[in-house]
Design a protein that fits this description.
Helix 11 (244-257) runs antiparallel to helix 12. Strands 1, 2, 3, 4, 5, 6, 7, 8 and 9 form a 9-stranded mixed beta sheet that branches. A hairpin with a 5-residue loop joins strand 6 and strand 7 (131-135). By secondary structure, this protein is an alpha/beta fold. The protein is globular, with a radius of gyration of 20 Å. Mean pLDDT is 89; it is low at 224-229. It has 2 domains: 3-214, Spore Coat Polysaccharide Biosynthesis Protein SpsA, Chain A, CATH 3.90.550; 228-316, no CATH class. It contains 15 helices and 9 strands. The chain has helices at 16-24, 44-54, 72-82, 101-111, 136-139, 144-151, 155-161, 177-180, 189-199, 228-237, 244-257, 264-280, 287-296, 298-304, 307-316; strands at residues 3-9, 32-37, 61-65, 87-92, 96-97, 117-125, 131-135, 171-173, 203-214.
Length: 318
């Protein structure tokens, strides 16, 4: 089984050495590292080459891809497209893998041939790797019940409501790319890969943290613990989302192209979710009217969105 790492970099000289070393010192070695650089203007790539020189004779195959600025989603698309491994690990430039990450994840793929994508928990740390006292699963409210749902028949529907999968913890079988590529602008790469795997019943979740998920203020995607006051201020400053319909349309179109990958029940659920998103975009401008509208639609908020959290955001949005 050939193992690839798809790593994306962008002005990452501050942290990239620690991340690369944590990959190269894994208890189970990977065979290939693909680094797709998104137009770094600092010394990121020089540091990458320096690390590999330090590990001369002990390192996997390295390929560095450069070119025009693509943004995070399409940079990951370029990286995974260049991977040749049977299993592909996603990798951010500023995190640190715990020493047994590859070994633990590969054990799941080996014991469960139907697993398409495996994700794990992660510890949130600051720029100096000090523990912030929270895990990624705590931040996304990952209960045992939710984990079982994600791995079962309802995983697709759960991920349609909200993504709880973080790309830095993800590994997947290469054949998942047959359905997932090309990545789409309206979806982050991790949520897109996860829901593609869940559509085929192939999502698996490891409760153990296998990554130190660094939060430092410059993350392209991050997950900082927030106080209630900060969350309220964010909600009050938020404008209504307009991309929900397009996201679902893209999902319907992509899965419709893959014959037999989605049963009729799930397709019916998708079309109902699309109708709900269209209704959300027609929310009354008056908050008084909006309150009654959201109350009337409460069941649909639970079925097709993140429950009353989504309802509260719609109520407070400008």
């Amino acid at each position: 089984m050939k193992l690839s790492v798809a790593m994306c970099t962008y002005n990452g000289e501050r942290f990239v050495i620690e991340q690369l070393r944590s990959i190269l010192e894994q208890s189970k070695k990977v065979n290939e590292i693909i680094i797709s650089d998104d137009g770094s203007s600092d010394a990121t790539l020089d540091l990458v080459r320096h690390v590999f020189a330090d590990f001369a004779g002990k390192v996997p195959e390295l390929k560095i891809l450069t070119g025009e600025r693509l943004g995070i989603v399409h940079n990951f698309s370029r990286a995974v497209s260049a991977c040749t491994g049977d299993i592909i690990f996603l990798c951010d430039q500023d995190d640190v893998w715990l020493p047994n990450k590859v070994e633990v994840i590969i054990s799941v793929f080996e014991s469960q041939p139907d697993a398409l994508l495996v994700c794990s928990d992660a510890r949130l740390v600051d720029a100096e790797l000090h523990d912030l006292g929270k895990s990624q699963f705590q931040m996304v409210r990952m209960s045992d019940g939710l984990r079982r749902s994600l791995e079962g028949e309802n995983g697709f529907e759960m991920l349609l409501c909200r993504n709880v999968v973080t790309g830095a913890t993800v590994a997947f079988r290469r054949k998942l790319l047959d359905l997932a590529l090309p990545f789409l602008d309206e979806w982050l790469h991790d949520g897109w890969l996860a829901i593609m795997a869940a559509a085929q019943g192939g999502l698996r979740v490891i409760n153990t943290p296998l990554v130190l998920y660094r939060q430092h203020g410059g993350n392209q995607c991050g997950m900082k613990p927030e106080t209630f006051a900060n969350q309220l201020a964010q909600a009050l400053s938020r404008t209504r989302e307009t991309s929900g319909c397009e996201r679902i349309r893209q999902l319907i179109d992509r899965i419709s192209m893959a014959t037999g990958s989605l049963n009729d029940r799930r397709m019916k659920h998708l079309r109902s979710a699309l109708a709900f998103e269209k209704q959300r975009q027609q929310l009354p401008s008056s908050r008084a009217e909006r309150f009654f509208f959201i109350g009337f639609m409460a069941v649909k908020y639970w079925r097709y969105a993140d429950g009353m959290r989504s309802g509260a955001k719609d109520f407070l949005a400008r």
